[in-house]
Amino acid sequence: MAYFDAASTEPLHPQAREALLMALETGWADPARLYGSGRRARLLLDQGRAEIAEVLGARPDEVVFTTSGTQAVHLGVLGTLHGRRRAGRHLVVGAVEHSAVLHAAQSHERDGGTVETVGVGRTGAVDAGAFARAVSAPGTALACLQTANHEVGTLQPVAEAAAACQDAGVPLLVDAAQTVGRLPVPPGWSVLVASAHKWGGPPGVGVLAVRKGTRYRSPLPEDEREARRVPGFENVPSVLAAAAALRARVAEAGEQERLAALIDKIRRTVAATIPDVEVIGEPVDRAPHIVTFSCLYVEGEALLRELDKAGFSVTSGSSCTASTLRPSHVLEAMGVLTHGNVRVSLPSGTSEADVDRFLALLPETVRRIRQEAGVSW
Amino acid sequence: MSRWQATTREEAAQEPALTIDALGKKCPIPIILLAEQIRSVPLNAIVAVLADDPAAYTDVPAWCRLKSHPHVATYELPKGGWAIHVRRNY
């Protein structure tokens, strides 16, 4: 079995498992209480917060924990818009942002706000000039841009976007879910979101960091927890485990470079060994672990099924693999082939032998599916 | 959904030499039918693909780009779906 879906979730890091078991013993009490076990839980929570904040380039008091990356995005988008409603009700987003950003934007529109979506080129990168023009529109309350695209890996021009936002006096929400623990966090964000299970932490820990001086007001009912930004009882053991995983990930020198070289190999080999294939996304300025390609005349679902039978866990942006029966909005916005699509994303520790087995199997699998569909030219 | 609307009268004027009815068919079937049949029309003639799978809206133009056949225009059909016009280039 080879698990190649790290962009969905990374397997729990062994050090995170160890930290989780330890923290379930010592950090189960209510961190808001003043007795000994409560104080201990508070101490552990703040320790985890400080470690994660350091990797993000944030102050610990800027960082709160949510129940997921999606919740961090929803709160980050809606809370910043709410805090800035006197400045205006206009929101700017990139066209290939995670659906959590786009759904928050739809919610803002239903609420009477306006949204501008900045388009992307063929590689999936937003046009930095168009983004800068969009954020300079009067009444812009917030702009959102991901560090790297979750389906195709392309890096976004976050530094240019941050400079433009600073010039326009507009806060920038950066969705760093795909890159925290893999690449340095780019400076210039006002709001930063991430998700622990993508860096080898446990599920159930999203990160929301709001820079001092950024206006923010929770869109949810009042609650005392997490600086009044996230309601509900803190998941102290999982935060500790998330911090342990991030610490371990950052210490793995050279691993991301190794994964990036494996992705290069996949990009090269797929293009060379499979006829009528489109390898998608930016070849160089990309996240280290993700590659996507589409095979002409192949049904994505059939390809996933065959690869699953052969022991490879990969996913697809093709419509037949989506519950909505629509292709991925990312592939659509890029104007690339959406059928026959496969996304490979490599977790830490992926062996080159597994990648080679995958590359050896793929051409014959694609050929067989095409043959069964009657494609013979 | 206006990226590929017809823009000039000349494009609108050329009638398709062949219409492939792929309505109700899921990708990649509309693309397979197009690839199979484009050589049955003369060079520079137009093939119209009728399709209502949302993937076809993106994938027919993407196929054109990959296969170097010009994508001429995409027209919305009154009952849903599109007529996607492709010119045979070789």
UniProtKB/TrEMBL annotation, chain A:
Belongs to the class-V pyridoxal-phosphate-dependent aminotransferase family. NifS/IscS subfamily. It catalyses: (sulfur carrier)-H + L-cysteine = (sulfur carrier)-SH + L-alanine. GO terms for molecular function: cysteine desulfurase activity; iron-sulfur cluster binding; metal ion binding; transaminase activity. The keyword Metal-binding applies. SUPFAM superfamilies: PLP-dependent transferases. The keyword Membrane does not apply. InterPro entries: Aminotrans_V_dom (IPR000192), Cysteine_dSase (IPR016454), PyrdxlP-dep_Trfase (IPR015424), PyrdxlP-dep_Trfase_major (IPR015421), PyrdxlP-dep_Trfase_small (IPR015422). It comes from the Bacteria. Residues 3-358 form the Aminotransferase class V domain. Its cofactor is pyridoxal 5'-phosphate. This is Aminotransferase. Pfam families: Aminotran_5. Keywords: Aminotransferase, Iron, Iron-sulfur, Metal-binding, Pyridoxal phosphate, Transferase.
TrEMBL record, chain B:
GO terms for molecular function: transferase activity. SUPFAM superfamilies: SirA-like. Pfam families: TusA. Belongs to the sulfur carrier protein TusA family. Residues 20-44 form the UPF0033 domain. The keyword NAD does not apply. The keyword Oxidoreductase does not apply. It comes from Spongiactinospora gelatinilytica. Keywords: Transferase. This is Sulfurtransferase.
